Amino acid sequence: MADRLLITGGAGFIGANFVRYWRETHPEDEILVLDALTYAGRRENIADIPDIRFVHGDICEGTLIERLLDTFAINTIVHFAAESHVDRSISDPDIFIRTNVLGTQSLLRAAKAVWLDRGTGLPHRFHHISTDEVYGSLGPDAPAFSETTAYAPNSPYSASKAASDHLVRAFHHTYGLQVTTSNCSNNFGPWQHPEKLIPLFLRNALSGKPLPIYGDGMNVRDWLFVEDHCEGIARILDDGAAGETYNIGGGMEVPNLAVIDAICAFVDQAFTEDTRLAKRFPSAPPASGRSTSDLKTFVTDRPGHDRRYAIDAKKIARELDFRPRHDFHQALALTCRWYLDHPQWWNVTAEPNPTAQQA
């Protein structure tokens, strides 16, 4: 029997990649995408994906959610919709509380009303995508975050995601809603908004703009290629146990400075291999024989900047036989090549904050 999915935030970065992945791997399923199309969500991200329905709407609109669940007989919600940028949460935390906390509550309430209170009889699943940032910061030698690590969020963003995680858990234990949660590490890949570290630094490099590095650049993140993340979520939907949480990591702890150096090396090599790039991007340092690393600029660290994240992904490997397929350098090259080949996409995306970074 085909499933009928409601994918919230499906026009955003990870959501759009998941819609693409699910359509390719589950061609028989029905997909309904709900997205508010704020600055990070764009119809263009999913315009070429066949046989999907799209609704422009807000997850805080409970009546709309109930109507969609009823009308399309939805039996699976995959909840990506969220405000996700730490810097934005520091400057304006209110929208993070509205979307991440109240929006998740709205979805849970609608799912409970349709699936449980009115008793559709449909087997159901509510899958909630969260972040490793809810666990706080790690010291250099501390063990990686596991599913039993105590929550210790350090930014308004991570605090709002922690609150939504707790709501999802509560709706399972209190009402019996069939839920799962995944906490992922730093995602990267195609269609990521240019305010995030990798696309921001690549775009700045091609434009000859400074590459702003917070603090000493040695903040460490576990990097996860978005395609691997999508595969991990699919494995949870197919085989994960209701009420359980699964950490999804890339298995690659890399300091920000090393990521930036790898981007610089990619740009330099790309210009060496393709002399036409100098005409397309004349402001890039290698267009005039200089090194992209000349653009590196150290700036004041942001408030509450977590020093290190690392994911212990043994549970999903052991119980669901999932492991990421891409290593960091392979996936970074694929990602940078995608942006290099799609300048029309990031040229029409909202102008990013020139000092904003994900990590």
Automatic annotation (TrEMBL):
BP GO terms, sorted: nucleotide-sugar metabolic process
All residue ranges annotated as the NAD(P)-binding domain in the record: 6-332
A GO molecular-function descriptor: dTDP-glucose 4,6-dehydratase activity
Enzyme Commission code(s) on record: 4.2.1.46
UniProt KW Nucleotide-binding keyword: no
Keyword NAD: yes
Enzyme's top EC category: lyase
Keywords: Lyase, NAD
Obligatory cofactor(s): NAD(+)
InterPro entries per record: dTDP_Gluc_deHydtase, NAD(P)-bd_dom, NAD(P)-bd_dom_sf
Swiss-Prot/TrEMBL catalytic activity: dTDP-alpha-D-glucose = dTDP-4-dehydro-6-deoxy-alpha-D-glucose + H2O
Family, similarity comment: Belongs to the NAD(P)-dependent epimerase/dehydratase family. dTDP-glucose dehydratase subfamily.
Protein name as catalogued: dTDP-glucose 4,6-dehydratase
